[in-house]
Amino acid sequence: MSPEEIKATIDAVIANKVILTYTQLSLFVLFCGIAAYFGAYIRKKGENLATIEDIRLLTEKVESIRTVYSKQVEDYKTELSMRAQAAMVASLFAEWISITPDLKELNRLAWEATLWLPDDIALEVNKRLQNRADAKDIKIILVDIKGLIHGQKSKMNPMDITHY
């Protein structure tokens, strides 16, 4: 019972001049108190359940946003790593065609490229470094690596790559 209902009941009893015994009055007050307590208790429980539901929904939204951003960060890290590895291949070929190559650096770059490149491209790089007759042109290999970085075959014409 709400406080308003209790007041209305008491007013009705007084208006009708109903006389209650002390036992009846005590029981009436006791039941009104119990009803008021349980009413407040149930209302508070309902508020708590609503709050818990709201927190759960907010937590789910935060986690979904965190998942999206984590994936984007990982994709960006992967892209940066691929770009660094592609730059390493460019350094390899630049050192290889230089007038006085540093053989120690050239070996390090060649071995590093062999370790991370897919087998087909690594084979072509090594054929080119060995000056084999069946080796692809450096520019074609660079276009293949560009396609590897972007996850699709590059539409770039190898002859459009400038070198000195």
Helix-strand category: mainly alpha
Q: For the terminal residues, how far apart are their CA atoms? A: 92 Å
- Uncertain residue ranges: none
Number of strands: 0
Radius of gyration: 40 Å
Question: What letter string, H or E per element, gives the SSE order?
Answer: HHHHH
Characterize the overall form. rod-shaped
The number of helical segments is 5
User: What fraction, in percent, of the residue positions are helical?
Assistant: over 70%
- Profile the largest sheet: none
The fraction of residues assigned to DSSP E strands is: under 5%
Arithmetic mean of pLDDT? 87
Description of the structure:
The chain has 164 residues and is mainly alpha-helical. It has a domain of 114 residues. It has five helices and no strands. Helix 2 packs across helix 3 and helix 2 runs antiparallel to helix 5. It starts with a helix and ends in a 14-residue tail after the last helix. The model has no long low-confidence stretch (mean pLDDT 87).
Question: In a few lines, what is going on in this structure?
Answer:
The protein has about 160 residues and is an all-alpha fold. It is built from 5 helices and no strands.
What keyword list fits this structure?
single chain, 164 residues, mainly alpha
What's the arrangement of secondary structure elements?
Blueprint: H1 3-15, H2 22-97, H3 103-116, H4 119-129, H5 138-150
